[in-house]
Amino acid sequence: MNKYYWLIPILPLLGSAFNGLLGKRAGKSVVTVVGLGVVFGSLLLAISAFFAMKALPDHRLILNYGEWMGTGSLSVPFGLAIDPLSGTMMLVITGIGFLIHVYSVGYMHEDEGYARFFCYLNLFVFFMLMLVLGSSLVLMFVGWEGVGLCSYLLIGYFFETDFAPAAGLKAFLMNRVGDLGVAIGMMVLFAAFGTLTVSDILTQAGHLAPEVGFGVLTFATLMLFVGATGKSAQLPLYLWLPDAMAGPTPVSALIHAATMVTSGIYLICRLAPVFTLTPITMDVVAWVGAVTALFAATIGLVQRDIKKVLAYSTVSQLGFMFLGLGASGFAAGFFHVFTHAWFKALLFLGAGSVIHAMHHEQDLFKMGGLKAKMPATFWTMLVATLAIIGFPGTSGFASKDEILYLAYLKHPALWVIGVIAACCTAFYMLRLFTLTFLGKPRDHHAFDHAHESPVSMTLPLAVLAVGTVAAVWLGWPKAFGGDFRIEAWLAPATTYGQLHAAHGEHGSHQLAWGLAAVSTLFGLGSAVFGYFSYKDGLAVSEARAAKFPFLHTLLLNKYFVDEGVELYLLRPIRWFGNVLWKLFDVIIIDGVGVNLPGALVRVFGDFTALFQTGRVRNYALSMALGAAVLLYVFLK
Amino acid sequence: MTGMDAILQGGLQGYLVVALLLFAIGLATVLLRRTLLMQFMGVELMLNAANVALLAFARFRGGDAQATVFYLFIIAVAACEAAVGLALIIGLYRHRNTTDSDRAAGLKQ
Amino acid sequence: MTWLNSHLLTFLVFAPALLGFLILALPQRLARLARMLGFMGALAFFALSLAWLLGRGGGAGINLAERTPWFTLVGLPVDYSLAVDGLNLWLVILTTFLVPLTMLGTWNSLKDRIGTFAALFLMLETGMLGALMAQDLFFFYLFWEAMLIPMYFMIGVWGGDERRYAANKFFLYTLSGSLLWLVALLYLANKAGGFNPAVMGQAASTLPFGVQCWLFLAFAVAFAIKVPLFPLHTWLPDAHVQAPTAGSVILAGVLLKLGGYGFIRFAIPMFPDAAMHYAKPLALLSVIAIVYGALVAMVQRDIKKLVAYSSVSHMGFVMLGLASFTVIGTQGALLQMLNHGISTGALFLLVGMLYDRAHTRMIADFGGVAVKMPVFTTFFLIVTLSSIGLPLTNGFVGEFWILNGTFLSGFAWGRLYACLATSGVLLGAVYMLWMFKRVFWGPENKDEDSGTHHLHSDLNAREIAVMLPLVVLILWMGIHPRTFVAASEAPVTALLQDAKAPAIRTFMLKPAVPPVPAADAVQAPAAHEGHAEPAAHEVHR
Amino acid sequence: MNLTPSQWAALLPLILPALGACLIPLMALDKDQGTTKWIRAAMYGTALLAVGASFWYLTDLWITGAQPSFYQLRMDRLAQFTGIFVLVAAALTILQSWDHFHQEGWVKGETIALLLFSVTGMMLFASTTHFVVLFLGLELFSIPLYALVGTVRARPESAEGGMKYFITGAVASSCFLMGGVLIYGLSGTLDLGAAALTLKAQGLALDPLVLAGAALLLLGFLFKVSAVPFHQWTPDAYEASPHPIAGFMSVATKGVAFIALLRIFPGSLAPLGTVGVKMQAVVAVLAVATLVLGNLTALVQTNVKRMLAYSSISHAGYLLLGFVAGTPAAYNGVLFYLVIYLAMNMGAFGLLTAFGLVGEKTTFDDLRGLGWKRPAMGIAAAIFMLSLAGIPPMGGFYGKYMIFRELVSTGHVGMAILGVLASLVSAYYYLRFLVALFLQAPSVEAERLASDRPAVHAPLAGATVLVCAAIVLAGGFLQTFLADGFARRALVEGLGLIR
Amino acid sequence: MFITFAFITLLGALGMLLQKNVIVAGLCMVASFFGVAGLFVLLANPVAAALQIIVYTGAIMVLVLFVIMMLNSHEEEKAETSRPIQRWVSVALVAVLAVGAVKLVLASPGLKSLAVSGAPVPGAMTLQKVGFTLFADHLLGFEVAGLLLLAAMIGAVALTKRNL
Predict the structure, then answer these.
(1) What are the residue ranges of helices labelled H in C109-196?
(2) pTM given for the model
(3) Of A158, A569, C275, D431, which one's alpha carbon is 20 to 30 angstroms from that of A177?
(4) By a Cβ cutoff of 8 Å, what residues of chain D touch chain B?
């Protein structure tokens, strides 16, 4: 089979090419077949590749397909590296990706850009796989930028609207900011290790001592982390993600929940051995993660747009993941990626199903009582909600609790922040759930037309729900009698046999129990609080909002960050550009430097022309003066 | 004999001084007078100055006949210049009805 | 035939001009025939250049050269000397490729004197090819100057409203640089007794360092104006905006390259020491150009002007790569020249196509073009992506190499400048995509006199036929760049070796065992200038 | 008395044009209206015949390599070079003036006769070192020119320009005369070559009167080459005179004066070392002044003829730079430059005739759009202007190249830089010519005038223009033939300067 | 004797320079030419003296005076009001040149030696000598002079002839 694995990323690319070039003519059915077929094909191949990898002794399957862009001492092969880490991601991408493709068939079927949509979607899968499987940082960067492009295109999918293009542009540019970090990081790593092939870097890193203080690697890893914040929407580069909801809902599910936004975490896990060498970076990661988790969660408390709520929750969850990584819990962090992929995808698709039912109505306050109308959606959403609020026994509980536990070991403050964030999560999730499905319908017109979504949409919901539940098998914490399977599983990838392995020093089980109990209690408490505040309409919440007007406005307007950026960053830059152009370029360089000399020459010319008076006596005089000069020179 | 005496007693220097002064006066005429005819006469004067110098040298070189021949040619030249120059002046006068060179300054800059 | 076999390059260089004169002789009423002739000829020259340059042991080891003594004037021998080697192979092909493509792309955009235009175009091709191939500095100078003449008329006759100003500016700007350069050339030729670059380089190395610096500066200014390097770039926006589409394409596609090519071919090999002495200022100016060009491009209102300023930014990358004095950087610069030729050329073509339809280039006049011209939009998007250096397009490879090369370069400032230059990549995305958004996306601009309103037809077959090869190249260069840099690898390495470029600087990483005291374990990036082993095989490959 | 064949050989090139000059006025005596046309044709035919015969004879001499002499006249290679130079210019002028005078509406045999007289004078002037003959030659070519400038009776400016040229020229020539007399006086011989030797022998090389004499001689030459500050007659005289005559003056006068200067100063007076040194010193100063002033003033002209006049002044500056360098190679460059300059300027002035610009209608606006109306002329114009600006591959570039090269090699780098900057400025106003021809549409009222004016008919002028263009291009591609085969041999074998 | 003639010459010249009335100025010039002729006599060159009187004074100056009459420009030049710069610069320049000339003459060693060596008065110049030299050595010049006169004549005709 090995010789077919290159098709894993290439198949979706071919599908994308086909859909892009011929899709419009071929018709929707063909597009559907191709679009789904290629992803399914690469899913099958991925599975086989995964087990082939597991069969290998060192769990590392590296396939090379020749040189790409080598020159001088730089060598960048086309290569795929499949190991537990990338393998899992690969499965998630192809698997969840496939489900979402299926979902899209139903969701997009009346859109005239159908072919274009699947072209982009396939292209995204291709790039995402490149990002995951790339054997060298450069190749990963291809995927890294590629997914950015696809998210740009998909966010701006409804390009004839006003907001979608703006959101797409915003997403791409903010990602680009992060990409700068990655680029610089790569340059530093290349200068440090003389190679950009991941496996070589990790092997070399294995023999290095952790950096004391701020060193090269710290710089490099911090730069990479900047990139991660860009992709994974962490402070301060999270702004694009909420706007990204302008895209079609399946996109939000696939790109902005399940896969792309987790690539930041993936990058760090990929380079875990290097990050382990740089304690400073780890602290930064942890703190940024924690703060983001809380920050986003608070905003999520008051949003009205169902997708916006989910978006902020995504940001917040990503924060949790980084918190986990920062606490050296690569396995924990990645496990949360895994679980989150399932339940967040589920949540989005559920939301999508609701929106679809409500004829593209996204305002929570206009929903309500949909439980009766769309049971399938209701039940699957319930599963996902329980998972995300960390209801004991769910996969969400497992991953989040492991993270909080490690966070506590790193620094109690982190744990506190985490718990608060978790409470907020519980609150707004219940708020969302209640406002959507329970209570009385607030918009009867929409409610009357609401209906359960077609099977092509509900089926994926079901599968995802199953996945959400089953995911727990991978990593039920040791503290609760489970065997945190995923840690051992990822070990070959995260610890490249280096001397200083990632060390979450394990405290006692009592501690674990205690922490878990506290956080769970708080979480469930706020969940209940959320339910009761909204179960009979908006009255309660409005009253509360009236009580804390300032806080409410602040949260409602997302802390006014967008306005601040526009005012204090973008406008000055544009102004500066104008100054450079109008003042510096046109006036100083071109005017003073170029045209002024020309003008001066002309002025001199006018002056010298004055000597040509037309009076012969003057001519004779100038001759006489000339004669005087001649005589003087000759006689002196 | 010293320079001044030589000049006053008609030595070679004397003639040269006369010649050069004539030359200067001729030049001055061209520079200071506006009437074209005057300027023309100034030019003639300059030529004459050259003649004086020429023949003076010739005399002190033991009466060199070449110089006289040259003088002959110079006279011819002077005549030619007179002819053409006066013709030009007349032509100009026909158009501008003046012989004031300052007022015949249509071509300038 | 035998003559031809030994004079392929002569034919390639001068055949276009001959054809041009032939066309010029055709009467006005045969203008259409003239245009067709010109196009066919250009196409043939392209085919021949491919067949000969690549066919005859193409790729790395190619050495087509002609060198015979031409004449000796005031005691200085001048050689008739043409050659194609790794350094100029692809630039030559780029030239022969762009000329017919541009002719086809602007087939109907000119209405009057099309025959004359084609003729001038072919003469320009001769000038460019000659300048690219000439191996004798005097010979090079002839072509370098002669190139101005057709370009001057192309801008001045067929240009926009400000064409006279732009044409004069272009001509005098370039002339001012090359005239001073001529003096330096004479000075050096006088010392060397000839115009052979190698001999002149030898002579230069014997001169006092101060003199070398002056000579290098004279060379550098002449080339930098062509590049154009900040702050000598102000002729470019005017020339680009005023020139007809074809003019802009060739200007961006080839003429600018000649500046960078001049550096790598003449200025650096002849004055290595001076070049390295001025490497820092050069790099600094390049970085400024990158950021400055981008910032200014960001606030432009005219699409064409925006693209023009983006050229300043992109060519800044080229200069940065050259100033890095590393194989990676220089290779990147060479590739970036080709990239810019392809991408910016394509951009100008697209802008031209838009202008031919809408008769405006103001960004504000558009909006929602994607609705009306989907195919056009797709092409524009692809080219835009290549111009902002998205991976798997050509732009990425060049910029990545240049940045890495700069970061590794043996000069202390390399790392800082590399980091600064990366911002150019971001800004590039900003101005290009912002423009893209405002022109192509958003609700359709229904305004009566808006540009969008005048768009009635999407690209026709001819225009698609023009764009396809460019897109293919964009992807090819992005996916398999080695096709285009394999030939230059050896010469570049040798060149840097002869120039005694400093070894690349890498970081010393501290192995775990034996553990070292924490005191000197503090490693700030600037703190250690380790010349590690990679340096050695980097330079002495 | 009877002359030996070699004396005839030396004299013939001068006799032929002189003979023509004497015959033509006789034809003018016939007043029969019916035959006027034929008379005119006969006049021009005679003139061309005389010039052509002399030219043919000179080339014959050149090929045989004989350097005969007659009394003080030395028909050596340099003289032959000059002769060919002047005769070509004369032929072009005659052809152009046929068309021009028809456009102007009057044709006079006298003008052609005067032209031939001045041709004779020029050949004489450049082919002797004997002061008497030198002076006579100077007058013989100046006086007819005074008359020629003033000969356009229809225009008041014409007489004015002639008058100015006459007054200034007379002053200059009397200075010249005085200088010669002083040198004669102290040396006792009228032959400048011999004079220099005797003075050196008597140790009078540094005698102030000698130096003064040399200075005045130099003044005479500098006036003729119209170097600043002896240049002011130039624009007025050119504007005043008919286009072909202006071209002839700009080319032939300057060329002959430079060659004579070359023959006298670096040639005959070489024994007086200091004179040469001081000459270079003063020429350096004046060359700079000439370049700056000529170019700057040319920049602001609106009248094409005046622009060309100032441009010719600035070109005098470039040629003077050759004297600053003062190496044989530099003089070689000067001669080469003169050949190209002949073609460039005769061509440029010929264009005015070819485009049919009559009277005062010689501003840039009158040129608008003509390049497209007359493509061949337009291309030729482009060639001339680019060559004047010194853009390769035109011949003008090589002239500048040779001179600048020598400047640099003799250490005058600053001068060279100034020179190139000057030519940068010059490029601007030469481009203006092309801008008018190609880049500007004709103004409305110009169109109207063109419509009611009969179509321009100037076949001969057009032909001369094309010939000039061919020469300029040849200068660009056969530069070695012209520089080494022609100019250098004249220099080496004629003047005996060995490089 | 020398002094007298020199004075006549220079005074005549000065008179011409300063005299406002053109005709009078012309007459002054004639006087100055007579002085020059006298100097020639002193220089033992009667031939030149004769020519000076006959050709110059007799022909050229008369022609000039004739033209003056014809153009009836005997009205006086208005006193120089405008362009003082031209005026004073010229005056200063001429003065400098004149003084410089005298200094020059006194400074020149060649002149001194010549003056001493050439003190003995040679035999008077005779037409025979002149003619002999003319046709022996200056045949070319003679021819050219002839051409020159012809050219000048034609030129004058071309410039003034009424009908073409």
Answers:
(1) 114-133, 137-146, 148-158, 163-192
(2) 0.91
(3) A158
(4) 132, 135-136, 139, 143, 146-147, 150, 153, 156-164, 166-167, 170-171, 174-175, 177-178, 181-182, 184-185, 188, 190, 235-236, 239-240, 301, 306
